[in-house]
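Think of the structure tokens as a kind of shorthand, similar to the way a musician reads notation: each symbol stands for something richer, in this case the local conformation of the backbone. In the example below we present two proteins back to back. Begin with the first one, reading the sequence and then the tokens, and try to describe in your own words what changes along the chain.
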Amino acid sequence: MILHRYFAQRFAMTFAGVLGVFIVMLTLLDLIDQLRSFSADASFREVLSLTLLSAPQALYRMLPLIMILTTIALFLNLARTSELVVTRAAGRSALRALLAPLAVALVIGILGVAVMNPIVAATSKEYDRRVDGLRGVSSVLRISSDGFWLRQGSAERQSVIRAVATNVDGTQLSGVTFITFEDGPIRRIEAARATLTDGAWEMTDVKIWPLGDTPNPEAVAETHASFTVPSTLTPDQIRDSFGTPSSIAIWDLPGFINRLETAGFAARRHLMWFHSELAQPLFLVAMVLIAAGFTMRHQRGGRTGLMVLLAILLSFGLYFLRNFTAVLGENGQLPVALAAWAPPLVGIGLSLGLLLHLEDG
């Protein structure tokens, strides 16, 4: 138990050191990038706040790389001081010596998903909001429990659109209500269906109420079999307004996915992200096992640089495999659960086989 605590403490301290180095490097590099992008539109204080808001997301994405380097640094240091040799001489196998680092990596992964993920979602959402404010753009879509809402218009006139259901890209609406504002509401339109064409909404089964100074809008309401309303929206704008799944906290993702599916949108992208986040702790465990398989050896055996290179290359290979299967999962070519959970399980299985081979021959 004392040895496990010692290895756990060494691993945690090494992780903290590597994480600190990455925090400094990423913050400085991102500050330079933000200055290049927004120095003409924002003060240095605003640019610095943008840098601090984007830093958590960058660190969270690089967590697997940080875990790889932590494991390599730990076991190279233990091998240099011959502590691994003493551990094996005391009767501890390589797998038993790995239990404490694996437990710490698993805890870091769980804390990352449970705590860091919501922080990243909040900071990235605030970052996007501020960047959109500097660039003069904003999201045009909101999903709620009673349907979804769109916003369109110009500087003089704005329209709010509510629909009960839609197709997968938000261009065909059912149960539609348009309310147009110009220093107050001036018109309400209800339609059974609305289809977004090039520069306009084509509506069917329409009823229109003027809301300006009319004392009784119902008395002057008009009905039309079809009606056209000009629009500045495009299908790409609607799709982009969903934002990235990483901007939604993992605790809120199931409800958001349910609202998307209820509104008629495809939610495979968000579902894939949800399962990938749940599999993140196991993926970090796989990173530790892969790095340990190549570095839990005495340095007198030679080829230390080659072993470190192989560990990094294999870890990056597993990382790209996870991204590749994620794309297949989002496109529907693989089941979401298989695409999310297979890469970490494959990495754990292969690395355990390597460790058993090195340990028992």
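Once you have a description of the first chain, move to the second and do the same.
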Amino acid sequence: MQRRSFTLAAAAALAAPALVRAANEAAPPAGPVKIVVGFAPGGGTDVLARVIGQKLGAMWNASVVVENKPGATGAIAADYVSKQPPDGNTLLMAHVNSHAIAPALLTGVRYDPRRDFTPLTLVGVTPNMLTCAPAQKARTLPDVVALCRERPGRVSFGSSGIGSAQHLAFEMFKLQARVDAVHVPYKGSSALIVDLLGGQIDYAFDTMTAATPFVKQGKVIAIAQTRLQRARSHPTVPTLAESGFPGLDAASWYGLVGPRGMAAPMVQRMSEDINRVLALPDIAQRLDEFGAEDAGGSPEKFGAFIASEYAKWGRIVKEAGVRADA
């Protein structure tokens, strides 16, 4: 009898760690899972959400769909996700616009990017690009500045929305170059590129993710990029910083977050799965082609990154005096 009791006790002791592990390992979301994107289909954020969502769907054996809620430079989508149940079935492709710029620039933003979301994983940081159509004669940065000075208030620059990183890149460029130019906001990159190619606007500050396919096809000319260092995928395109605009760093970034209050085991599981997807050779190659770098990492690291970007862009908006109606 004593031997039997000892055997049962030993078995229970051996099983305990496995039971604890099982309790701590969350199942993937039951689905269907929505990844909400704050921009129109076809833009950089939308493209990344779709390629990552497809891989996650296969990994979780669940339906993962992208839902576009454009407007207010991503703030509409972010506000929507902040109010959803924290069950892992609604995620947001957070963006520098929704989580760093909009709260400082737009009135009526009711969420706090640092407190009302659960960070999962940074998907990538990518420069923005100053681009033009091949028909444009001024294709270098000095020529663009000269053109703006020859035609004050008449040269137009498109961006993917008022208060977007692309808009602020334009405002920073305009201030440092001391030129007067016109800002034309769009609801996303797709419409912007159509008008750029059609000659309705002269230039565009666009995401490198959205611009790259058109650059590779020769349909769009890349003039400059907006990160301090050149992206590996575009080593011949100069940065604005090295072209006479020191310190001009206006990169976009993307990352997956959920509503506030998601259970820690699920957060860990989803973050690890997203990291696995980002490490897949075809996804890594796709990110590299689009100039998206620094992908991956822990929820804690991404949360700290969001907080630092929130502070940085709030300071820039104030110092540059940028207004939502600019």
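Compare your description with these statements about the second chain. Strands lie at 33-37, 64-68, 90-95, 117-126, 128-132, 156-159, 182-185, 203-207, 221-225, 252-259.
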